[in-house]
Amino acid sequence: SFGAVTLLVGAILGVFQTDLKKIFAYTTLGVLGMLTMLLGLGTELAIQSMIAFLLGHALYKAALFMSAGSVDHETGTRDARLLGGLRKAMPMTALGAVLAALSMGGFPPFFGFIGKEYVYKAGLAMEGFALIGLAAAFVGNILMFALAFKGGVGPFLGKSRGELPKHPHEAPLSMWGGPLLL
Question: Which phi and psi (to 5°) does residue 175 adopt?
Answer without folding.
Answer: -100, -35
